[in-house]
Design goal:
The complex is a heterodimer of chains A (303) and B (436). Chain A has 12 helices and no strands. With 303 residues, chain A is mainly alpha-helical. Chain A folds into 2 domains: 1-39; 40-301, MetI-like fold, CATH 1.10.3720.10. Chain B has 16 helices and 11 strands. In chain B, the strands form 3 sheets. Chain B has a 5-stranded antiparallel sheet. A 4-stranded antiparallel sheet of chain B has the order 6-7-8-11. A two-stranded antiparallel sheet of chain B has the order 9-10. In chain B, helix 11 (333-341) packs antiparallel against helix 12. The chains are: A mainly alpha (303), B alpha+beta (436).
Chain lengths: 303, 436
């Protein structure tokens, strides 16, 4: 028996209890989160609105009879009927089906763009807040420049330069979100940097990178999670808006903003595509906002 | 205070400088080549190359950026050897365009052209026509012993001609492509630069961008100021009502209404309002059609829905800010003292709550200007309102690069300026803050 296996053997019960301890901790956190959620009716209503859309988006193929791209020139601009629950649009496509598949687009691109922004924002904000000095000054000046842009304007010029595609929508919205996230992370880092446990880690001889990632970042998570949720709401808001402005996903991809844009020229003939897409985006964005807002207020109450 | 203002002004200048680099970089260095945007998808590589040369796009990005910001006439003037002058030609009622000329030793306005391989000087006469004079002695000799000449051509460019050579120039005129031989081998498009008020010529409208922006800006300003004048007082009133009735049904209704109107995308709000008032009730027009320059003032009904849409989004936000601020002040010790002293609720509200609760919303409203401007862009495109936002959107869709660049700079300057103004106002009205 070599020494390696002895270590493994002696370690395994310890690892098990460690794992159990961790599971218990995670469970407690999850329960704490739901208790927080339960305490705020606003957040619950918001979450319900969002979850309905998530459900519809996931099961879109099972819940629809027609493909969102299938055109039927014999049934153009039809009002709701038994065959087409929400009628058809100006190309004879089933509005209900486009609506459900459109939910996939927005629910995928929204969080994705915020995650991208979050990663880059953290990568910029952590060192800026940790090192301060000239590095901080340079990073903040550059981010201030981006912040000087009204968001829509920044998105418009980025997408007009790159061309409309789902990838470029994600890039544009991520770029728009980076400065805000970086600023938040920087402010939190500047605060946490002076804490005892960071000093202890320094004494221990941990590298700056380890301190930033293992000590500071985990302690930023509360405000970051709330900010993340708020930003998904904004992202959905802007994905819809870009679609409406004709800078979103190129047709024929089902996209709520694009549906409103296309339908609003045919509004006199058939109001259903516009009405359903508009209400869909309003309900999703309002739901996301209620959820994030409720959670934020509830979590602030205990601070 | 003075030092604070100066420092803020300098920061603003730095920000605008960085913004200009960023705008230029995103719009012109991105893969979507400017020349190809002008020419469309069917241009041949030769045509594209010629156009790039004519637009000066083959020069280094740094030089192009400097030319865009500060102008290129001073660079060209050094090469040509004469001072340059720009004159404005009026044709008909509105059509105006600019022409660049060199001023020669006699004070005459001159341009040059090549005919059958010979160099001619075109001297501008008082009636606007030109007299061609042979100018063969003007050729200069470079190190390789070849004859060259830098002059001004009739297309507002400084042009480099080489004697006995020259490629084929493709020029896109209204009638179509014109190919001419013996043309210049290099060009510098002449402009005075953004800072000196020359924003270039719109690729889409073929008019000076500054002229288009000025008109659109006025329209946007009308819409924005009416929306603000209507929505802010209303929002503060609602916020005050909600804050004073914290937790009661009235507060709930106002707060949730505020959240819903702020969260809904502007275009959705606009479309819903159009459905209700234009399609359903048929009492208001659903689109702003401008027959004349000042249609808005003649038919105010055109403005109702755009103002309502732009206002609603703003109302929701300001209501929430005011409410939060009022709630905070209402729970403060001095208001409790005032209540215990037995002051009437009117006195408490107007003397103690309002002045203190207004501090936060006023600055927050000003800092919110970026959001408001973004909303305006969307509202203008929902209603087809001919404002600056709509101009930028169409420029972005048509890749009208000079219009995008110039109008973005105008909008951002406006946003940054307002924020600076907000900070200064805040420093003035809040005695607790003293900047040093």
């Amino acid at each position: 028996m070599n020494s390696q296996s002895i270590i493994n053997q002696s370690k395994s019960p310890l690892a098990w209890s460690d794992l159990l301890f961790r599971i218990n901790q995670t469970w407690k956190k999850i329960r704490g989160f739901f208790e927080l959620l339960w305490a705020s009716p606003t957040a619950m209503i918001g979450l319900a609105m969002v979850l309905i859309w998530v459900f519809l988006a996931i099961f879109a193929p099972a819940l629809t009879r027609y493909s969102p791209l299938e055109q039927d020139y014999k049934n153009i601009n039809k009002s709701p009927s038994a065959e087409h629950i929400l009628g058809t649009d100006h190309l004879g496509r089933d509005v209900y089906s486009r609506l459900l598949f459109g939910a996939r687009t927005i629910l995928l691109l929204g969080p994705l763009s915020v995650v991208v922004a979050l990663i880059i924002g953290i990568a910029l904000g952590l060192p800026a807040g940790y090192y301060t000095g000239w590095l901080d000054e340079v990073i903040m000046r550059i981010l201030d420049t981006f912040m000087a842009f009204p968001a829509i304007l920044l998105y418009m010029i980025i997408i007009s330069a790159l061309g409309p595609s789902s990838m470029n929508v994600v890039i544009a919205i991520a770029i728009g979100g980076i400065p805000g996230i970086a600023r938040l992370v920087r402010a939190l880092t500047m605060d946490i940097r002076t804490r005892e446990y960071v000093k202890a880690a320094k004494l221990r001889g941990d590298s700056d990178f380890t301190i930033m990632v293992r000590e500071i970042l985990p302690n930023c998570r509360g405000p970051l999670i709330v900010d993340f949720l708020m930003r998904i709401g904004y992202a959905a808001f802007y994905i819809g808006t870009l679609g409406f402005l004709g800078l979103g996903l190129p047709p024929p991809t089902p996209d709520w903003g694009g549906m409103v844009q296309e339908g609003h020229t045919h509004m006199m003939a058939n109001i259903w595509p516009v009405l359903s897409a508009t209400l869909a985006i309003v309900s999703l964005v309002v739901g996301l906002n209620l959820f994030a807002d409720g959670l934020r207020e509830e979590s602030m109450r205990y601070q | 205070m003075a030092r604070y203002i100066i420092r803020r002004l300098l920061t603003m200048l730095l920000t605008m400088f960085l913004v200009s680099i960023l705008v230029f970089a995103i719009v012109e260095i991105a893969p979507g080549n400017v020349a190809r945007n002008i020419l469309g998808a069917y241009a041949t590589p030769e045509q594209e190359k010629s156009m790039q040369n004519q637009l000066g796009l083959d020069r280094s990005p740094v030089i192009r950026y400097l030319s865009w910001l500060l102008g290129s006439d001073w660079q060209a003037s050094r090469l040509v050897g004469y001072p340059l002058k720009v004159i404005t030609i009026s044709e008909g009622v509105v059509a105006k365009y600019q022409q660049w000329w060199a001023v020669d030793e006699n004070g005459a306005l001159v341009q040059w052209e090549i005919q059958d391989g010979r160099l001619y000087k075109l001297i501008r006469q008082s009636d606007g026509k030109t007299k061609a004079v042979e100018d063969e002695q003007a050729w200069k000799v470079n190190e390789e012993g070849r004859k060259y000449f830098w002059g001004i051509n009739n297309a507002n460019q400084a042009a480099l001609w080489m004697q006995g050579e020259g490629g084929v120039e493709y020029r896109l005129e209204y009638s179509g492509w014109i190919a001419s031989t013996g043309s210049p081998v290099d060009y510098i498009p002449l402009s005075k630069g953004l800072i000196r008020g020359d924003m270039g010529i719109s690729l889409r409208y073929k008019r000076p961008v500054s002229e288009i922006i000025a008109r659109r800006f006025t329209n946007s300003l009308i819409l924005a100021s009416i929306a603000i004048l209507v929505s802010i007082p209303l929002a503060i009133l609602l916020g005050l009502l909600a804050g004073l009735n914290e937790g009661k049904p009235l507060d709930r209704i106002i707060s949730i209404g505020g959240l819903v109107t702020t969260a809904s995308p502007d275009f959705a709000t606009g479309i819903i309002l159009i459905m209700i008032f234009a399609l359903g009730l048929k009492i208001l027009p659903g689109a702003t059609v401008f027959m004349e320059n000042n249609s808005v003032l003649k038919d105010p009904r055109l403005l109702v829905l755009p103002v309502l849409t732009a206002g609603l989004v703003e109302i929701g936000y300001v209501v929430r800010m005011t409410r939060a601020s009022v709630v905070e002040v209402m729970n403060s010790p001095y208001v409790r003292t005032a209540i215990l002293k037995g002051l009437s609720s009117r006195q408490i509200i107007f003397k103690h709550v309002l002045p203190n609760a207004m501090m936060a919303p006023i600055t927050v409203i000003m800092l919110h200007v970026n959001w408001f401007i973004g909303g305006l862009v969307v509202v203008e495109s929902v209603f087809g309102y001919p404002g600056l936002g709509n101009l930028i959107l169409n420029a972005a869709l048509y890749k009208d690069v000079y219009t995008i660049e110039a109008s973005s700079m105008v909008l951002i300057l406006l946003a940054v300026g307002t924020q600076l103004f907000a900070d200064l106002i805040y420093a003035l009205i809040n005695p607790r803050i003293r900047y040093s």
